[in-house]
């Protein structure tokens, strides 16, 4: 009798779980179809929904059936532990374990389907809120949208200007470093020349003579250019 009751409850649970799973699937597809048909969220997604009421009713029914099946399994366990059935104890324990496995599978399937349904419903709530925000933003005045666009363009221009200034500063810093390096090189060459001049007086004297000759040649060349200029001016005026 207990096995008959357990099988009957298991059959009812199997049918209920199949319908429960179909309800979850149809709920998801129905919401997706409604989003495709309507671009704006004009009606609430869940308030007064018949699918939500059906979900709550079926969940309660399945929980009641699971409770009844758990009670039947407990009674079968008490029967197998009684002292009057020692020869059939192994077979009965196998049968009891099979019914317990079925109960565990049904319980796991129910909680999994219920969790999926609640997750889909919560996601639909969030998506509905997001769509409302999007629609309210789209329905805003064109002046505000234009002002926002101008602000974005101005912000982009400021970013570009800031980037150009940073590039200019980087180039100036590199130029400064290069000039500092060249200045150091020239100082090093000058110090080396002075060291050589101090070490070799003859070289220093030779350099002074070269400088004096260069000055004399410059004076001679300047005098010749001056005389030629005066002669040209006298010729031009006469």
TrEMBL record:
Keyword Protein transport: yes
A GO term from the CC aspect: SNARE complex
Annotated GO biological process: endoplasmic reticulum to Golgi vesicle-mediated transport; inter-Golgi cisterna vesicle-mediated transport; protein transport; vesicle fusion
Cellular localisation: Golgi apparatus membrane
Entry keyword set: Golgi apparatus, Membrane, Protein transport, Transmembrane, Transmembrane helix, Transport
Membrane spanning residue stretches: 219-237
Role played: Involved in transport from the ER to the Golgi apparatus as well as in intra-Golgi transport. It belongs to a super-family of proteins called t-SNAREs or soluble NSF (N-ethylmaleimide-sensitive factor) attachment protein receptor. May play a protective role against hydrogen peroxide induced cytotoxicity under glutathione depleted conditions in neuronal cells by regulating the intracellular ROS levels via inhibition of p38 MAPK (MAPK11, MAPK12, MAPK13 and MAPK14). Participates in docking and fusion stage of ER to cis-Golgi transport.
Family the entry assigns: Belongs to the GOSR1 family.
Protein's UniProt name: Golgi SNAP receptor complex member 1
Origin species: Rhinopomastus cyanomelas
Gene that this sequence comes from: Gosr1
């Amino acid at each position: 009798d207990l096995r008959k009751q357990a099988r009957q409850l298991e059959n009812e649970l199997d049918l209920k779980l199949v319908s429960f799973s179909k309800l979850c699937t149809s709920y998801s597809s129905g919401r997706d179809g409604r989003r495709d048909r309507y671009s704006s969220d004009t009606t609430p997604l869940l308030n007064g929904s018949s699918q939500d009421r059906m979900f709550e009713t079926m969940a309660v029914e399945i929980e009641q059936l699971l409770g009844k099946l758990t009670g039947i399994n407990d009674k079968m366990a008490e029967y197998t532990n009684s002292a009057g059935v020692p020869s059939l104890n192994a077979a009965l324990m196998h049968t009891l374990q099979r019914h317990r496995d079925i109960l565990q599978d049904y319980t796991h399937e129910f909680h999994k389907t219920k969790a999926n349904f609640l997750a889909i419903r919560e996601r639909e709530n969030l998506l509905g809120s997001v769509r409302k925000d999007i629609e309210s933003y789209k329905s805003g005045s064109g002046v505000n949208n234009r002002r926002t666009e101008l602000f974005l363009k101005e912000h982009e221009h400021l970013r570009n200007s800031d980037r150009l200034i940073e590039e200019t500063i980087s180039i100036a810093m590199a130029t400064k470093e290069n000039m500092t390096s060249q200045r150091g090189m020239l100082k090093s060459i000058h110090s080396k020349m002075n060291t050589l001049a101090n070490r070799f007086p003859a070289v220093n004297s030779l350099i002074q003579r070269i400088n004096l000759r260069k000055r004399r040649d410059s004076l001679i060349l300047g005098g010749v250019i001056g005389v030629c200029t005066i002669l040209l001016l006298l010729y031009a005026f006469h």
